[in-house]
Amino acid sequence: MERSNSSWFGWWRKKAREGQGGGRRRDREKVVVDGTEIRELVEDREAFGMLVDSKFRQLDADGHGMLSVSELRPAVEDIGAALGLPAEGASPNTDHVYAEVVSELTHGTSQGEVSKAEFQEALSDILLGMAAGLKRDPLVILRMDGEDLRDFVAGSRYEPTAAAVFSKVGFGSEEDASSLRQCVLAALQKLTVDHGVPPASDTWVAKNIVEPALQQLPADQLEQQPASRDDLFQQLKKLLCAIADRLQEQPVIVAHTENHYDGSGVKRLLANKFELDKLLDSVWKGLPVEHKNKASKEYLIAALDKMADAASLPYYGAVKEVDAVVDESIKTAGVEEGKAADEAEFKKSLTDILRAIMLRLNDKPVFVSTNIVVHEPLSGSSTLLK
After folding, report:
1. Which pTM value belongs to this model?
2. For the chain, what is the domain count?
3. How far apart are CA 123 and CA 75, in angstroms?
4. Where in the sequence is the domain holding 266, given as residue range(s)?
5. What HEC string does 335-366 produce?
6. pLDDT tens, residue by residue, 26-68
7. Radius of gyration (C-alpha) of the chain in whole angstroms
8. One domain for residues 171 and 228
9. Are residues 325 and 247 located together in one domain of the fold?
């Protein structure tokens, strides 16, 4: 099973299952998550205090009243998952985010251990930051039970969509020697939640939804070359109907987000000198001493991540297209690797990088749509907001 954000989506899964009362079926099958629940939890001192007590006891394996870095790891992993980052150790470009979370949780301690009060304060800051991000970019939790897919297959959109999909993947010509299986699976990868199809690239969906549906098509035909374009259309339709049947038996919960990065958030930040100066001061003060003494791409990325919410940018490592823009902008700033940088130079470099990011995104905006299958939590897995 793929790593997922299940520990943070438990109650959203429950809401998506139950729906929200009356109204159209489509409206009952989705829940918009805008950070309100997280914010209300943190602001409810009694409820948040009880959560902190419970989680602190759960993480404090040796029971001595302080959390070591190793004991904090389960909480850090859950926070990373909620931010949509790869697992720690999977990518050097995002591992620094985990280091930043650990630094935030252990701030002010000399032995790298955290008291319950420090844990509560740091966790509050992190969750409120997440809530602010969700308010800006809400998350939609979709419950996919096959009904939307059936509507798509039976409606007027099916044939033109199928024609466009097969054209994109290059199938359907007389010279094409691809098997029917290859054709319909390639087409399936191009369909989205807008068509009622859960992410076919997800290994759980492939194993539990797509493969059983494929088994309902004649095995001998699947290995043959499609006889015609109509044959392709009909076989894909049969597969989609079989997938809809599987979804009716076993609905899939999908977390859907859409983000449009055009540099406007960076422009607003740069135009507000008071906010920009205040943020730069905060970032500089929070920068580890070793980074102040030795400039590097790593420390600039860490600093930019601290400014991401204010600039309406994703964390580095979350969106590869934006990562490429950041990389080019850092090169443009001409920061010399390994050279010591004082406060003024640091702030100027960050401002120059932000301005370069703004210009690049304004010239070529990045649109990102993500769909993450929300799996049931693994037995015994750590949870933070369960």
Report:
1. 0.62
2. 3
3. 9
4. 262-369
5. CCCCCCCCHHHHHHHHHHHHHHHHHHHHHCCE
6. 544 677 777 788 888 889 999 889 988 888 888 888 888 888 8
7. 24
8. yes
9. no
